[in-house]
Amino acid sequence: MTPPSPVIPWRKSLLVRLLLTSVAIAVLSVGATAWLAVQITTRAVQEERGQVLSDDSTILRKLSGFAATHADWTGVQTTVRTLSRTMDRRIALTSANGRPIADSAAPGTALPVRASAAVDPLSTDTYTEPGAQLVGIDPRVVGPYLLPRAEREQVKALAEKRLACMRRYGSNGSIGRVPGGRTVIITDGGEASVPTQCADGALNAPTLTEKRALFVLSALTEACLDREPKHATLKGKAGAPFTPGRVSIPAHGNVRWVGGNQQTQSCVDSATRKQLDPYVAPRASLYLGNLRQQPAGFDLSPANKAKIFGVTGLVLAVTVAMTTVVAIRLVRPLRALTAAAQQPPQQHARVAVTTKDETGYLAAAFNDLTARREQMESQRKAMVSDIAHELRTPLTNIRGWLEVTRDGLLDPDPGLIASLHDEALLLQHIIDDLQDLAAVDAGTLRLHREPVGVDELVAQVVTAHSTRAEASGIRLLTRTDPGLWLDADPVRMRQALGNLVANALRHTPTDGTVTVIAQPAGDLAVLTVEDTGDGIAPEDLPQVFERFWRAEKSRSRRTGGSGLGLSIVRQFVEAHGGTVTADSEPGTGAVFTVRLPRRPDPDSPSQ
Prior knowledge:
four-stranded antiparallel sheet; 4 domains; alpha+beta; seven-stranded mixed sheet
């Protein structure tokens, strides 16, 4: 009856563990990938937003410059399209009441929801600090303060003269030009670093054009101040660089109100804007967006979150499905192996090999092990039967003769005693052979090695078997090379070589020949026993060294031997580090060859 399959707890099930392992790996992989993607995407979005902000500031600065130098928006469409291609952004301008001025997109394209900025150079300064939007008038709005070419050259000559004077007195600086066309000297320390000998005031004195503009500004400011309790006089600040392009005059220190206060400063600002207003384009709203009407970058919107969770779930589902298929294919042959191993030993169950992977190799190895076990079981049964047969025959003879003698039917004459003695010797021989094989199997066989001359070993074996050879009419010949030595146990080697000679004599007919040959072959000593008997069939050659094996199962014990001699030969030769082989062709005899490591001649002078 087949034993029931063991119940494996689900926590220890290989299938469950594979599933849990794959799910854990998938979760960690997806989580790590998602975290890395979020980090990289966040960084990319931040960098992209920073770049977008920088690009947007550049666009606003250029359009503010256009508005500061043009009385209206005529011709701005070309600038808008150029900026759009350069910045890869959609750019649109509308008037204060929403009327379109310029747009880089196709007509009819909807504007973004909110305006990005207002283009008003009279209120926002995008020139002084690039990337920033300062409160004030853009310095590029110069209007009536723009110097004609003659005055620009005049001021430039004065600036170069002052710079040359400064260098003579150990000071230094550089020449620059403000949007209004006036040339100024740029020094690290400002006006304080200009030597007194060079501060003649000529460079900072307003030109004729600037005087006219300041006169108009003064008139506008006085009109504003008529409602104020106090009045002030507008004049240029002597000794300070005059930059008329910066119409917020007090902020630059170029023009100041004597005795002015907050109300008067407000009038100055209002008058300045009123004076410059005809020279700048009207206030406009700036709309910026993606050129392809798609949001830039990646955000964690609900749609994107749904995509992330959907992809994650799909990855986990595919992982679990694939792992389940692989695990089932892996576990199924293991379960088959388990079921086969639980079968009763006498059934010798095998497993079908369906794959060529590690599991298939394991199943093949299991089948090989089962086959060897079945063979060993058959050999064990055959050996037990052979041992019983080999022991029964001499014991039966001894018992029969003893019972006949006891009953007085036969007198115990010397012939009877000799026969009983032969049977006892045969029984002892079988028992000794079995004991030797048991010692080899148990690893308790002890070899007493010493230098053994091969010629002497052959002579001793031939002498021991010469009487039997003569009685059978068989010629026993030897051919040995002198000086051939072995490091071996002489008793075991005589027994092994004697078994080969006895086996050859047993299978050689009358008038046949048995030849024992010993010769060197490199580092080996080769001992060969040849006979002229009937030979061995090719299919029987692999089994001649098996225990209790006989080529002819019907042979009697007396003609066939015990079946242990050749097995003992193989065990003793292998214990000495050698090999033994058998070659034969039916009808031409058999050749048994023993190869053993040779040793130098102990009597050689080199030793």
